[in-house]
Amino acid sequence: MALLSMTVNGKPVSLEVEPDEFLADVLRDRLGLIGTKIGCREGECGACTVLVDGDAILSCIHPALKAEGRSVLTIEGLTREGKLDVVQQAFVDAAAAQCGYCTPGFVMVVKALLDRNPHPTVAEIEEALAGNLCRCTGYYQIKEAVQLAVERLAAGGGP
Amino acid sequence: MWRDYLFARSVDEALELLARHEGQARLIAGGTDLVLQCQRGECSAQVLVDVTQIPGMERIEERDGSIILGAGVTHALAASSALLRLKAPLLSEACRVIGGPQVRNLGTLAGNLVAALPAADASLALIALDGEAEIVSPDGRRWVPLSDFHTGVGLCRLDPTREVMTTLRFSAFGSDYRAAQERLARRKVHALPIMNVAALAAVREGRFADVRIVVAPVAPTPLRLRRCEELLEGREATSEAIREAADLAVSLVHPRDSLLRGSGEYRQALAGVMVRRALERVAGIAPSDRAVA
Ligand SMILES: Cc1cc2nc3c(=O)[nH]c(=O)nc-3n(C[C@H](O)[C@H](O)[C@H](O)COP(=O)(O)OP(=O)(O)OC[C@H]3O[C@@H](n4cnc5c(N)ncnc54)[C@H](O)[C@@H]3O)c2cc1C
Ligand code: FES
Ligand code: FES
Questions:
Q1: Residue-wise burial string across A30-41, b where 16 or more C-beta atoms lie within 10 A, e elsewhere
Q2: Residue ranges, chain A, pLDDT below 70
Q3: Is the CB of B222 under 6 A from ligand 1?
């Protein structure tokens, strides 16, 4: 076992992990943050995306110990005092989820995109979504959700 | 899988940790290749030594006409670097099409080179750029030309259980240099290429100089088409010259039949088409056919 200290959704966390555990499993099984989904476990689908120091990463292939000293943001960390983040609300309003399994991963890559680039072009949006698969929506509503979030941010932030 | 995960804070410490475990330890950078190998049971390392905290591993700078990169530069850093976009656009463009953003945020140039996948995007660009890698081992430091770095699928002239790649260097693009990557995959993004071509040349007074063409996967390692390069050297940059080079390219490549990538015959023809398109872009002349999307 090894000691892992990191910040998760703004709170400092220290726990013992196996050296070959992945961040996705630590978040889900040890910390109960089951909003992060596991689709493929091989880097292909993006369902397990979380942010580490603001960068989107695939937590299913990310050795947990790599997060030592870093700040991890999961889908649970987006909601503030019961209020959805602008990206989450846009996904709801654009009906961008069907089964919803891919949704946390998509929301997190969009969050990472808009935090750095609040006015992305269509090409930049597509580039940001390229590492995430959705088997239900056909992606159109997801892209509409991103556009909606962009518009709302430009109009002053809130949904 | 592995029973210990350690961080090296310096190159010396990385070497020492590797040496202490006598072949049982292996370097890890982004892990986007190695972790999958371990999951498939193809890597028996007991200890992983993480090199991403070593200072200088992510530097990007220009010195005396050379671009100097830390071997741990991520694809995301390479793709967004203003210096590389100006002085090595072939590399920054190649890094921009690797995986999705999540993979680019962690995957590194050294990892791309050492994983030695035959069509790896950053590797192709670095080979076309005549890049060299500095490798540090317990016996000392050496610079290895990347065109001579790969020895087979997954194999290279570096042993990641005892050696560390620290630095990459190549000449900065002169203002008369142009480059192009042509990449065909089953989908445009987030898929390994069926065929990948990187081409680069100076065009001076309408003539090709310093031509470099790399094609993959047509052999166990990325293939420099030296004879095509020689054919074009000093020639007028016309469609005729390019066609000749593309025909020669077809006779030089012998891709295998692949269930994933298509028949050898198909990909041999494809290599010719893609070499031609890349050279047409380098020469700045209109494509002689319409690009397929
Ligand atoms: C979903 C997905 C999509 C991908 N798409 C592409 C793609 O489109 N194009 C492409 O080219 N690749 C692609 N890859 C492969 C991979 O991301 C790249 O090859 C990446 O550059 C590997 O870098 P890394 O830092 O993650 O390497 P790691 O996995 O950390 O290491 C790879 C190898 O390099 C060695 N190594 C790492 N750093 C050093 C060092 N400093 N010195 C010596 N040895 C070292 C390791 O021991 C290991 O053998 C993809 C991977 C995934 C998971
Ligand atoms: S579960 Fe991580 S990419 Fe699919
Ligand atoms: S909503 Fe079902 S996979 Fe995307």
A1: ebebebbbbbeb
A2: 157-159
A3: no
